[in-house]
Amino acid sequence: MSITSDWPLPRDGIRFLTPRQLVNQLASHPLSQSLYPIAMGYYPLAHHHHMRRLEHDDYLLIYCTAGQGILHINPVDEARQYEVSSGDIIILPKHMSHSYHAHDQYPWSIYWLHFDGSLAKAFCQHLQIAAPCQNIGLQPRVINILETLTELRNSKYQLSNFIYASHQLQSLLSYLSLLLKQHSPQNSKTFDLQQIESIMQQHLHLSLSLDVLAEEVKLSKYHLAKKFRHLVGQSPIQYFINMKMQHACFLLDSSNLSVKQVSADLGYDDTYYFSRLFKKTIGLSPDQYRKSKYR
Question: pTM for the whole thing?
Fold first, then answer.
């Protein structure tokens, strides 16, 4: 188990370690063994905070919310130095020697989290981290999950609370994967996913071709399709169709509009084509969906 920093904890700081006995329970429990927290905390305005590890046996996440700091990967190699600032996140895998410290004049405020589990490596690979330190901006959802995890210090060491925290940790890493893709340096200058989604939303009641979408965002069709699939995992048009079908579900749930009216509202003149598309996407016909007890 990695040693946490012995930095003097101020009144507003948080440092919490999961007891070894509880770590062993989490590592063997079927609902938590895939991913579980080992230690966590929050250091505000961490003057003189520093840490060096030549070896550590778990995974480490640090999220800087203010100030600055310095990260060294393999402290002997000065070339691998990263300047850390507000909005940056650090993900370090097992066995990576490292050191870090707060800036002397502008000390950082950080959330930190040690974790492990049978799927910890797979989750970190899913993040597709280009560098140990990357910027995701200040993300309220990330902070909220980290705050939830630090509440474990008030859990009286109840296993059920830690199982819940384990699933929050999975949610956090899954969400970070999306954020890291969106904030990837090779995407940020030429690809605005929010802009593309906004254009799709504007065309929700109309048709939208890849040609029109590419023209709107001033990209070639090839570049748009390739980047979009890399970020989202599906083609732009399939994503647009899914948006339409989700809205169709909302209309079927919340209104008395006929299937023909729902089809027209989404820009489909051919109700039969809309119904086939709906069933292919949702798995039920519009009529079956409306009657389903699962909706």
Answer: 0.71
